[in-house]
Specification:
This protein has 197 residues and is α/β, with parallel strands linked by helices. It has a single domain, classed as Nitrogenase molybdenum iron protein domain (Rossmann fold, 3-Layer(aba) Sandwich), CATH 3.40.50. The protein is 48% helix and 13% strand. It is built from 9 helices and 6 strands; from the N terminus they run αααββαβαβαβααβα. Strands 1, 2, 3, 4, 5 and 6 form a 6-stranded mixed sheet that branches. A hairpin with a 4-residue loop joins strand 1 and strand 2. Helix 2 runs antiparallel to helix 3 and helix 3 packs parallel to helix 9. The mean pLDDT is 90.
Length: 197
């Protein structure tokens, strides 16, 4: 996402650059593989990939045979709110675990969903009635207070299953961000525990 803004400066300095896209879980693994080859760390990469594959299986086993919950991914700043599709890092994790993103129930087509984060339509989100609301925010303590004031106490949201059943989850920003990192497997395991245990 930063390639357009920094590529000219990097090219002027004649610095080799490789831009990675880690917005989806499998992209993180691909990036690990590419960087492992680039830096001659193939053995280390093999260990990392084997660990990922084993632990991914453990996460998927938590969901096996269980009813798929519907999820709303709420991303916010103190000024605005967006909803994350399955083409965001957290949305992709939820999809991998069998959860159903409410963007489909909101009538958001696939081409629009591919943009990742979309403006929140409260009316459509309430009608989609998610089982879980997964909250991402900048400055988590402050954002949690903002989310609670905006959604938890609002009359319009009071009938939503996630709120009635206490399934509003403030995701740990060290594991859940707009892009995945080397600890993406920990994010997947944690989300599986949230949704299925």
């Amino acid at each position: 996402m930063f390639e357009d803004t920094v590529n000219d400066v990097i090219a002027e300095q004649k610095i080799p650059a490789y831009y990675v896209n880690c917005n989806l879980y499998d992209n993180v693994l691909h990036t690990v593989e590419v960087l492992g080859v680039a830096f001659g760390k193939e053995d280390m990469v093999r260990e990392i990939i084997n660990d990922y594959n084993t632990r991914t299986g453990e996460a998927l086993a938590m969901a096996e045979g269980k009813e798929a919950p519907s999820v709303m991914i709420l991303f916010g700043t103190t000024q605005s709110y967006m909803i994350g599709s399955e083409y965001t890092f957290v949305g992709d994790l939820a999809k991998k675990l069998g959860a159903v993103n409410i963007t489909g129930a909101m009538g958001i087509d696939d081409a629009t969903a591919k943009t990742g984060f979309l403006p929140l339509s409260e009316e459509s989100a309430i009608a989609a009635n998610p089982d879980y609301i997964l909250c991402l925010g900048h400055g988590s303590a402050e954002m949690q207070a903002v989310f609670e004031e905006k959604f938890m106490t609002a009359e319009a949201w009071s009938g939503v299953t996630a709120i009635k059943e206490g399934n509003v989850v403030y995701l740990d920003p060290s594991l859940f961000a707009t892009n995945g990192g080397i600890h993406a497997i920990d994010s997947l395991i944690t989300l599986a525990e949230i949704l299925y245990q």
